[in-house]
Amino acid sequence: MLRLLSFALFLVIWWIAALFVGGAKLPSPPAVLEVMIAEASSGALFLHLGATLARVILAFVLAMSLGSAIGYLMGRVRLADKLGDPWLILLLNLPALVVIVLAYIWAGLTEAAAIAAIAINKLPTAVVTLREGTRALDRSLDEMASVFAMPRWRAFRHVVLPQLAPYIAASARSGLSLVWKIVLVAELLGRPNGVGFEIGVAFQLFDTPRLLAYSLTFAAVVFVIETLLVQPFEARATRWRPRAA
Amino acid sequence: MRLEVEITGKTFKSAAGGTHEVLAPLKFALQSGEVGVLIGPSGCGKSTMLRIILGLDDDFGGHVARPPEARIGMVFQEPRLLPWRSVEQNVRLAAPDVTEAKLSELFRFLELDAHRNHFPGELSLGLARRVALARAFAVEPDLLVLDEPLASLDDALAGRLRDEIATLVASRPMMTLLVTHSLDDAIRLGDRLFFLSPRPARIVQDVPIAIPRAMRSEADLGRIRAELAALQLESK
Where in the cell does this protein reside (chain A) (predicted)? Predict the structure, then answer.
């Protein structure tokens, strides 16, 4: 209920601002909705939305699984941490734009180049978060698992993974927003479809309603993913914790 | 089955760079069906010794011989339960082969029936200790290690839990190693008492108790206590 109210407040502020600034720079909510409906009925909205969503999911899954594995390794094995750390710092500070442009130059304007470039941008933050999580693992529970001769996989699943779950959720949450911001840049620079491509077109035509229609629709999709997937996962992973007041 | 412990020494490097001797040379053995008790002042190196015996620390001089197939049941001082798993899951994860009948019997005996589906965070320390006991016994251990299982419980609760431990220990022929600083617990639960010196720990007295555990009357316990007090005086 509060969330709905908060959303309504956002609409009201937007509408008032639109009245002051004027329709060319900031169209009012109904004007944007009109474009959304027109694009949706022609099918273009879904095509571009689908293309972007597919890229987000692929890059996100790739970066999260690889990043989590590397982060866990670096948290557990000192040698891996020492070897990996300079790479990590480099990757963390490499601007997204540089990675994307280099990927397109080296691998051509291909889907693989785009997805790899997006994943590389997300990868280091996943590594850092999971490394922190692994360092915070409770050694006394490891000892318990070892004394009771728990097989490796069972110990990982029941002793280690539940401790990492909050870190995975945090990384997924920040990752989702990061990936979808970067995917638009990659699409703008070198893809013939997707929300980023459409925004590029809208930019050239100074078509603000179209720009807002596409970006807000996609933001809504991300919001739905967050509410339906990330939050339930988090709630399930932390259900044993006493509730905050 | 037999547990043989022969430690020639264990040193510990401190953060400041100095080396500290934690364990002096010491040697003892335990048979199946026997309860050995390690009694010593706190900080004397008991926990270090336990870690070595359990195979968690192999950086020491000497060797520990324990049959490789021996199943270990351990009750840690802090219960070390998985907070994100229910009481029943905690037990089953450590003892996947436990039968429902055995589990029910343990839960009934330790009065945990009502708490099967609770999470450890919802339990008092006394209950969490009971869960740790249930877990250790559910694996049907050949070697049972109890690290201060009655510490920080009030007297009445400690007394009840001690009787329950005595019953459980008597129910199975296994090697049991109990660490405690309470002489009373030691003479009620133990067959052989190993008195440890302050750090670096060595065994200063090795006292067998001849009367079987179940047969000891309060009068016997009083006599044993007096004998031990005399021994302690002699050794000083």
Answer: Cell membrane
| Overall residue count recorded for chain B in this entry | 236
Is the residue at A22 inside a domain?
Answer: no
Please name the residue of chain B whose CA is at the shortest distance from the CA of residue A243. Answer: B121
Give pLDDT tens digits along chain A (245 positions). 788 899 899 999 999 999 988 878 889 999 999 999 999 999 999 999 999 999 999 999 999 999 999 999 999 999 999 999 999 999 999 999 999 999 999 999 999 999 999 999 999 999 999 999 999 999 999 999 999 999 999 999 999 999 999 899 889 888 888 998 899 999 999 999 999 999 999 999 999 999 999 989 988 988 888 888 888 888 887 777 766 55
Rounded Cα distance between A222 and B235, Å, is 75
Is residue A200, in this structure, part of any structural domain at all?
Answer: no
Q: For residue B182, what are its two tokens?
A: 């309470």
- Please, are residues B129 and B153 in contact by the beta-carbon 8 Å criterion? yes
> Is B119 an 8 Å CB contact of chain A?
yes
The C-alpha atoms of residue B186 and residue B177 are separated, in whole angstroms, by 11
Contacts of B71 in chain A (CB under 8 A): 149
